[in-house]
């Protein structure tokens, strides 16, 4: 149902936000609602939408929606870890959308709107996994 994926290395990372207190996290899903949810969190400096993965260097929205590029809609979140934790951002991700809805489970058809969390460290992987399990327990 959900995916946890290691962080992708990108050439266009925003160097202004790469201090020890401002890590970034990427949460993949239909990005409009997720970006709005993160934008309201105290400690989030910046959000940016785009696409992760896929076969084209700079796909158009139309190309991604056609489902042939392998991209996923994504929200990159730049945050102050002194004010908000990675774990709380993961929890918000699961609460801000319902990945069990029928239209989001058609992974073979609508891969650009699949649910996924990218992580950078083993600790983040564990926190994301624990957050995912808590959400699954609520759904059960």
Automatic annotation (TrEMBL):
Domain Peptide methionine sulphoxide reductase MsrA: 31-137
SUPFAM superfamilies membership: Peptide methionine sulfoxide reductase
InterPro entries the UniProt entry points to: Met_Sox_Rdtase_MsrA_dom, Met_Sox_Rdtase_MsrA_sf, MsrA_MetSO_reductase
Chain residue ranges for the region called Disordered: 1-20
One of the GO biological process terms: cellular response to oxidative stress
EC number(s) on file: 1.8.4.11
Enzyme class: oxidoreductase
A single GO molecular function term of this UniProt record: peptide-methionine (S)-S-oxide reductase activity
Keywords: Oxidoreductase
Name of this chain's protein: peptide-methionine (S)-S-oxide reductase
